Amino acid sequence: MDMRPANYCDALDMTREFMACKFRIILANANEYYARQVAEAAFEEISRLEKKFNCFDPTSELSYVNAWAHVREVIVSPELFEILQLAKALFEETGGIFDVTVGAAVNLWRSAEKLRSVPDARAIRETVARTSSHFLELDSARNSVRIIREGLLINLGAIGKGYAVRRAAQIIAEYGISCGLVSSGDSTVYALGPQPDGRPWQIGIRHPQQADDRLAVVELQERALSTSGGPRQRDTSVYELYDHIIDPSKCEPARTELVSASALTSDPAIADALSTAFYLGGKAFTSRYCLSHEEVEAILVEEQAGEYKLCHVGG
Predict the structure, then answer these.
(1) Which residues are CB-contacts of 289 (< 8 A; sequence separation ≥ 6)?
(2) How far is Cα 302 from Cα 220, in angstroms, rounded to an integer?
(3) Phi then psi for 250, rounded to 5 degrees?
(4) N or C, which end of the chain is more exposed by having fewer CB within 10 Å?
(5) With contact defined as beta carbons under 8 Å apart, do 103 and 63 qualify?
(6) Using CA atoms, how far apart are residues 97 and 82, in angstroms rounded to an integer?
(7) What digits encode the pLDDT tens for the residues 131-144?
């Protein structure tokens, strides 16, 4: 994703590192001192959420759920319950293509990548048997979580950044700033209002192999764009032997016809999750989903005969 818009001298542009990526906030049409305080408040919220959602931090709230929810019901914070509830609803809507219970599979393939090996077939089968949001029970009356399959692990990597963008944008709006961008690395971006000149924000879909080039430009205003992709879409400075997106039905790195998939909708958290689902599900699934969800659009990138082809779905 390419955020090269808004080179305005009066726009505040700040970045912080959270959730293994750089979050960026651009705020315009506001007093610089005030905008800086608002941006810091938004970053504080992202930091707070990271401490709750990081499954690789043994002291996080999510790690506590992963460790104990198969033994007994665990009461969780409103934020963690809300994101789990949204994730389970999207699991149902996508027919299981989007699934946050891939934590064990992520760990399996992370270990294999460190050893530059392939997990054995038995380990993969055992992981598949304990991966499904059907085994995740949520009680909205008690804000509680129960895991009914021991060994199931939740990983919010495919929705957590989008949720953090959502909360940051909400905080900025609550403080009365209505012109800006909030983004999480190359994953998800949300546009608050139009640019200072009244035009929608211009966000580029990055070329899969040429980071400085755009394949397309998307106009955003009170809308989110999220992009997911495989080896050709990843940050070239980060070594990955396998695709970092896991197919929950097989508990293996994704194998898909797409180079990347972008989702556009009003909610950054949903856009984040759907871009993963669209990448995994492919063109046919994405077309069906957008047809039944009029507020959702998708931009798919395919490779044909060495060239990249864009397919716009919905809208």
Answers:
(1) 93, 94, 274, 277, 278, 281, 296, 298
(2) 23
(3) -115, -15
(4) C
(5) no
(6) 20
(7) 999 999 999 999 99
